[in-house]
């Protein structure tokens, strides 16, 4: 298998780069260790589109954040991903906080970001549920929220639709170079490529070393989150951050594009790159932190908790650029916050680098920049529902009773380019199993559809890929 | 389309309500259910113990359901199977979709809500740790084993001593799995005594009261759980924590009445039951809309579901905009809830169903009206896991009735 470009990692960065490259007449593949896209930090993060006042002026983070924020509206529209330009507030409770807000306002000015310092009265008007203890805030109208895994899925679907090959369950274990080509050992395959993009997230340090490129380290920082039921009365409209202080930045409290509220993350420096355990103390800290902004938050409305790992680079900034040690190898590493926001801008930049070092810039006439989302039956008008059922009777079979996801939507999520291969894959593409019963009702039915569409046995269907089997075997062999 | 009585759900409640509606004069009775077969959750309850009150014999779940399915067919009730109700309006227009019918609307003179309940899931418990496969509700496991014919795992820990968890402890054991223990957060079980005896004791499965799961471990698949004893405030005691290797964690930690449709049409919900607030004819706060079965309150015995559903079905068939006065049925000392929440002064005796908040020995349950005890029952033992009943005479009701439990 010979490619012009091999991208290692199917997170939001790798997927957006794949999408951008798919516009050109070049052969591209994506190699992913896990069983689906967005398996690492792109799945479990805050889902914030940052305005760009937080990053240090002059840093790569600042540059790509500001440009990425400007690009996100178009990217979300092209990819039909839910995006809400809701704005953000960094809130302060005392004089020290005022000082740190002033620093952020200065960063904003230097980074060219539109912000406003506002007082208590205006904050409480914008956010009626807010604690009256609040004193001041930095308001950034260009901040927003997006669904991070939907963006990643959409970008990769777009790329795959344009002809990009995606290999899952293929961890890269060795990289060698012969005759101007890289040879990548990935799972049980060998993939050859002229150019390699290292977007391996938490493992980007290991991939860079494998290629003999730059030495740096990815340090895992755990973030725990709580998601609340849409029924919780305690809500905010803007993304709420705490003013940075000696004690750290505090947690954020924000709406999601699905109408839930989200609180988190903790910031725990750990050693294990796979430790995504939530802890009682971590979740407690998240609840306490968010309650400082909105005191009426109630733990009983929590519907789920999760933890994600940011890959914190030892250099202190994004590591983006062609290796100076080995040819045609580009690192895109240490993409911690504001990485999600920066992804469209990073993708654009990487394509530029590749074309500078010799990749063809001939456009692919057939490539498209748009991707149609799966039409959500439950959100359609009654007229449209009738049309959908007339087109495909599987729209009349509601499989997930909590989120009203139909068989037609689930089948589409499986059969699309780079479609769902696991129960979690279906969940993240359609919402089936994300509702209040957490898949208790639809799990056996989703497994049935997956087995049928993928042509595998019922008990071969997994939750999230190798090792995550759901059934241990048949009860008796009397059932035939 | 139109119907005299439309019933949402073809489980035991829905079928009994539909049959009662027909017997009480409704001509055109329609039952709507999303499954392809009637019987609801009873289809996967293949153990016996159903029907002792109604039929005087022990039936399995499918047998119990089949008796009502047969009666429904004979009575000429219209079944709309594989049809999911999306919404109901306050003036009783039902919108549903189904493979066979496409999208339909149905105007009903009266509606009986009988959607059953769902299980509380891991999310609501916020158990810390990882998110491997192998963690599922007892009811989902029951479906895998009894309907699909597959085992969800081999080394099993069960959290929660609700009846489905107890039944599945036995079921998994009979299928060759090793059930290591059943953990219950409270100092008493949430299930029926007979299930503890027949499903745990008879199989030497330990029931650990005042214990919970404090962490879930495993990358792809579950490989163990941390278990700890809890203190009087139900907080885990750190130095009692131990690791238990297992590949399956079944959750049996409570049932929640399914009421999205009810809420959507503006039916008032009693926060104590999680189901609609109803009067003694099972009528909800929305005129012409009735509720019964686990949609209304979570039951222990299907026989009680049947009785409740018959009342709801009969009342739905005879529904007329109401004029009779009603009084409140109030939650007194020691009770979690009382159903029905309102008593209609229509001359008939009223059955009151309620649950206590704590375990009691040698106690008295009683209904008091205007300072006078109008019904009481001596109980050797009362527990939150077993529903209690009292019947009051309409003629004794002069105002609100308060139900309570006290030591004898």
Task: Please outline what is shown here.
Chain A has 480 residues and is α+β, with helices and mostly antiparallel strands. In chain A, 30% of the residues lie in helices and 23% in strands.
Description:
The complex is a heterodimer of chains A (480) and B (408). In chain A, α1 (12-21) runs parallel beside α5 (148-161), α2 (60-79) crosses α8 and α10 (407-415) crosses α11. Chain A is of the alpha+beta class and 480 residues long. The model of chain A has no long low-confidence stretch (mean pLDDT 96). Chain A folds into three domains: 1-82 and 147-217 and 314-373, 3-Layer(bba) Sandwich (FAD/NAD(P)-binding domain); 88-141 and 221-310, D-Amino Acid Oxidase, subunit A, domain 2 (D-Amino Acid Oxidase, Chain A, domain 2); 377-460. Helices cover 30% and strands 23% of the residues of chain A. In chain A, the strands form five sheets. In chain A, strands 1, 2, 9, 10, 11, 12, 19 and 20 form an eight-stranded mixed β-sheet that branches. In chain A, strands 13, 15, 16, 17 and 18 form a five-stranded antiparallel β-sheet that branches. In chain A, a hairpin with a 6-residue loop joins β19 (319-322) and β20. Chain A is built from twelve helices and 23 strands. The radius of gyration of chain A is 23 Å and the shape is globular. With 408 residues, chain B is of the alpha/beta class. Chain B is globular. The termini of chain B are far apart. The mean pLDDT of chain B is 95. Classes of the chains: A alpha+beta (480), B alpha/beta (408). Chains A and B meet through α7, β18, α9 and β23 of A and β7, α3, α4 and β11 of B.
């Amino acid at each position: 298998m010979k490619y012009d470009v091999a991208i290692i990692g199917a997170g939001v960065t790798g997927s957006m780069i794949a999408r951008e490259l798919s516009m050109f007449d070049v052969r591209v593949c994506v190699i992913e260790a896990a069983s689906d896209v967005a398996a690492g930090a792109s799945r479990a993060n805050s889902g914030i589109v940052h305005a760009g006042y937080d990053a240090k002026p002059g840093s790569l983070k600042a540059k790509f954040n500001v440009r990425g924020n400007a690009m996100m509206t178009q990217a979300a529209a092209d990819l039909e991903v839910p995006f809400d330009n809701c704005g953000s507030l960094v809130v302060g409770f005392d004089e020290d906080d005022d000082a740190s807000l002033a620093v952020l306002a200065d960063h904003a000015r230097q980074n060219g970001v539109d912000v406003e310092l506002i007082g208590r009265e205006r904050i409480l008007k914008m956010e009626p549920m807010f604690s009256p203890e609040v004193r001041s805030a930095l308001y950034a109208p260009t901040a927003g929220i997006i669904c991070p895994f939907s963006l990643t899925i959409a970008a990769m679907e777009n790329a795959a639709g344009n002809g990009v090959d995606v290999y899952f369950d293929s961890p890269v274990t060795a990289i060698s170079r012969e005759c101007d080509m890289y040879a990548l050992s990935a799972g049980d395959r060998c993939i050859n490529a002229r150019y390699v993009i290292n977007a391996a997230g938490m493992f980007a340090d290991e991939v860079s070393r494998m290629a003999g490129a730059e030495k740096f380290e990815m340090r895992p920082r755990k973030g725990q989150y709580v998601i609340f039921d849409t029924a919780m009365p305690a809500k905010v409209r803007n993304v709420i951050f705490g003013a940075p202080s000696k004690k750290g930045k505090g947690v954020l409290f924000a709406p999601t594009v699905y109408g839930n509220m989200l609180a988190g993350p903790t910031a725990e420096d750990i050693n294990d790159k796979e430790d995504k355990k939530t802890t009682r103390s971590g979740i407690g800290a998240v609840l306490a932190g968010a309650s400082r902004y909105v005191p009426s938050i109630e733990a009983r409305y929590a519907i789920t908790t999760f933890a994600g790992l940011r890959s914190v680079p030892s250099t202190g900034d994004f590591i983006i650029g062609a290796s100076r040690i080995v040819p045609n190898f580009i690192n895109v590493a240490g993409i911690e916050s504001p990485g999600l926001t920066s992804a469209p801008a990073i993708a654009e930049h990487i394509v530029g680098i590749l074309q500078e070092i010799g990749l063809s810039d001939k456009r692919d006439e057939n490539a498209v920049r748009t991707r149609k989302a799966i039409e959500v039956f439950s959100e359609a008008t009654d007229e449209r529902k009738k049309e959908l059922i007339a087109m495909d009777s599987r729209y009349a079979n509601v499989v997930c009773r909590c989120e009203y996801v139909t068989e037609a939507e689930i089948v589409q999520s499986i059969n699309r380019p780079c479609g769902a291969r696991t129960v979690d894959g279906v969940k993240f593409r359609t919402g089936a199993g994300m509702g209040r019963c957490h898949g208790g009702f639809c799990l056996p039915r989703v497994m049935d559809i997956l087995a049928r569409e993928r042509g595998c046995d019922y008990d071969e269907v997994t939750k999230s890929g190798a090792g995550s089997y759901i059934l241990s075997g048949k009860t008796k062999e009397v059932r035939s | 389309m139109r119907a005299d009585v439309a019933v949402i759900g073809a489980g035991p409640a829905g079928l009994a309500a539909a049959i009662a509606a027909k017997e009480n004069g409704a001509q055109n009775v329609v039952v709507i259910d999303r499954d392809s077969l009637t019987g609801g959750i009873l289809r996967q309850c293949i153990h016996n113990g159903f029907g002792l009150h109604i039929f005087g014999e022990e039936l399995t779940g499918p047998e119990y359901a089949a008796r009502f399915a047969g009666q429904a067919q004979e009575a000429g009730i219209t079944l709309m199977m594989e049809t999911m109700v999306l919404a109901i309006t306050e003036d009783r227009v039902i919108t549903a979709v189904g493979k066979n019918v496409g999208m339909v609307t149905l105007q009903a003179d009266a509606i009986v809500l009988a959607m059953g309940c769902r299980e509380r899931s891991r999310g609501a418990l916020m158990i810390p740790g990882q998110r491997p496969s192998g963690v599922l509700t007892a009811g989902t496991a029951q479906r895998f084993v009894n309907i699909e014919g597959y085992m969800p795992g081999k080394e099993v820990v069960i959290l929660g001593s609700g009846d489905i968890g107890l039944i599945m402890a036995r079921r998994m054991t009979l299928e060759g799995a090793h059930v290591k223990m059943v953990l219950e957060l409270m100092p008493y079980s949430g299930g029926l005594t007979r299930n503890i005896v027949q499903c745990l004791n008879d199989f030497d499965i330990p029931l650990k009261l005042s214990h919970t799961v404090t962490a879930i471990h495993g990358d792809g698949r579950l490989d163990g759980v941390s278990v700890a004893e809890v203190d009087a405030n139900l907080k885990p005691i750190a130095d009692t924590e131990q690791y238990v290797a297992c590949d399956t964690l079944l959750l049996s930690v409570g049932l929640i009445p399914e009421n999205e449709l009810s809420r959507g049409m503006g039916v008032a919900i009693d926060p104590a039951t999680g189901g609609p607030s109803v009067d003694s004819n099972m009528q909800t706060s929305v005129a012409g809309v009735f509720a019964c079965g686990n949609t209304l309150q979570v039951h222990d015995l299907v026989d009680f579901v049947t009785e409740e559903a018959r009342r709801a079905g009969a009342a739905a068939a005879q529904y007329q905009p109401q004029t009779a006065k009603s009084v409140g049925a109030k939650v007194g000392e020691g009770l979690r809830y009382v159903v029905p929440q309102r008593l209609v002064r229509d001359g008939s005796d009223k059955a009151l169903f309620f649950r206590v908040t704590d375990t009691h020995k040698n106690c008295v349950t009683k209904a008091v009206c205007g300072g006078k005890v109008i019904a009481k029952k001596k109980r050797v033992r009362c527990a939150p896991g077993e529903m209690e009943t009292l019947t009051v005479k309409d003629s004794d009701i002069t105002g609100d009735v308060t139900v309570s439990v006290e030591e004898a």
